Amino acid sequence: MTDYLRGQIAKLAELNIETLRYYENHGLIPSPARSESGYRLYSEEVLTRLTFIKNAKFCGFTLREIEKALSKSQDGSISVADFIAVIERKTSSINKEIAKKEQTKKMLEELKTNLQMAEKNPEVLEVLQILHMKS
């Protein structure tokens, strides 16, 4: 079994040392063993866990959600069905965020169109007045 020093595992996991320390302090990874000279030694299992954390973050999960999944997996209280349900909730949340962003984008495009019109909408004229802009 290979053990890694803090800098080595941080490099392999493509994380900075502060992030590694944060994960350790918040229970996302176990406290590492120590060498005879006091250096922290991280296992392959920790590297696998760090990869999982990084991938889960990329998928939009928060560290709190990740920590909850990891702690439930430790005591065996999470099933594949539970995990699928979490994924479905995350997907639903993302879809809601996308819908909000699309609505915001639509509003901005309409505002831009209205600003470019020769005959401006009274609401647009009011916005221009508030911003001290001349039409």
UniProtKB/TrEMBL annotation:
InterPro entries: DNA-bd_dom_put_sf (IPR009061), MerR-type_HTH_dom (IPR000551), MerR_fam (IPR047057). Gene3D superfamilies: 1.10.1660.10. One of its GO terms (molecular function) is DNA binding. This is Hg(II)-responsive transcriptional regulator.
